[in-house]
């Protein structure tokens, strides 16, 4: 990668640096910030990380930020890839992933390639299906963040969870 950090904590580009290099570095910086925080206490921190990760994709992706019972980050997984206007999300696979991580809580996220971060009826329906499925194994959904190029929408802050 063509990005270096000096002893004063400043970053500079070195050699050939692609857009992919810069985005990967930005995602790593945000991941490090979340890990330094230790736990997710502010939904905006999670939204920033998830926006960097999936906002500009040309297709839908469904990600889950898995947390322990103190809301410390266990993992962030891309579980499903979709098309330009949707992604099939299978509750069984989400429950399997939660059990593999030994998660106690989750923040769901997916992007809208259209750029609009408004939750759809389908988004609300799958959130409810996943809430019911994960509840059976003791995993709470804290939020479902819809990511667009123009920003993010927290379904929890809208009272949809």
From TrEMBL:
The keyword Metal-binding applies. Keywords: Hydrolase, Metal-binding, Metalloprotease, Protease, Zinc. It comes from the Bacteria. It holds the Pfam family RadC. InterPro entries: MPN, RadC_JAB, UPF0758, UPF0758_CS. GO terms for molecular function: metal ion binding; metallopeptidase activity. PROSITE patterns: MPN, UPF0758. GO terms for biological process: proteolysis. Residues 39-161 form the MPN domain. This is DNA repair protein RadC.
């Amino acid at each position: 990668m063509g990005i270096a950090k000096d002893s004063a904590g400043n970053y500079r580009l070195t050699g050939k640096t692609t857009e992919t290099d810069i985005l990967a570095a930005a995602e790593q910086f945000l991941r490090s910030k979340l890990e330094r925080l230790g736990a997710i206490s502010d939904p905006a921190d999670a939204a920033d990380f998830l926006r960097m990760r999936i906002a500009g994709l040309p297709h839908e992706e469904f990600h889950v930020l898995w947390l322990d019972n103190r809301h410390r980050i266990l993992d962030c997984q891309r579980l499903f890839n979709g098309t330009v206007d949707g992604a099939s999300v299978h509750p069984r696979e989400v429950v399997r992933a939660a059990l593999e991580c030994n998660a106690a809580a989750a923040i769901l996220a997916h992007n809208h390639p259209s750029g609009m971060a408004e939750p759809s009826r389908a988004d609300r329906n799958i959130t409810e299906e996943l809430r019911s499925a994960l509840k059976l194994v003791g995993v709470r959904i804290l939020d479902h963040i819809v990511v667009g190029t123009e920003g993010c929408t927290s379904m929890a802050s809208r009272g949809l969870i």
